[in-house]
Design a protein that fits this description.
Layout: H1 2-54, E1 57-60, E2 79-82, H2 84-94
Antiparallel strand pairs: 1-2
């Protein structure tokens, strides 16, 4: 009788320990999956943001009759592709800052 009680207590303790271990393993696996998902989302967001910031800016000026004479006026005015930071630098220079 005493041995049955002891075996039941032992099995109960083992089952409780296994359940506790399983819950910890499950939590850690879910946590790692969440962190991986957050990292992936942040990587995608930063790549999109970097792509948007690196997109060149297209500008086209009207025809300047002093610079373009004759047939070259049919081609149109000056066309330029600039980097966003260069475009921002030019706009601050036009505002009067050095």
């Amino acid at each position: 009788m005493y041995y049955n009680k002891m075996i039941q207590t032992l099995f109960k303790d083992i089952i409780d320990a296994v359940i506790k271990w399983w819950k910890r393993v499950w939590f850690e696996a879910k946590l790692k999956a969440r962190f991986d998902m957050i990292e992936l989302e942040n990587r995608i967001e930063s790549e999109l943001e970097r792509e948007i910031k690196q997109r060149p800016i297209y500008t086209e000026q009207p025809v300047d009759p002093d610079l373009q004479t004759g047939e070259s006026q049919k081609l149109g005015g000056e066309m330029r592709l600039t980097a966003p930071w260069y475009h921002e630098l030019e706009s601050t220079r036009k505002d009067g800052e050095p």
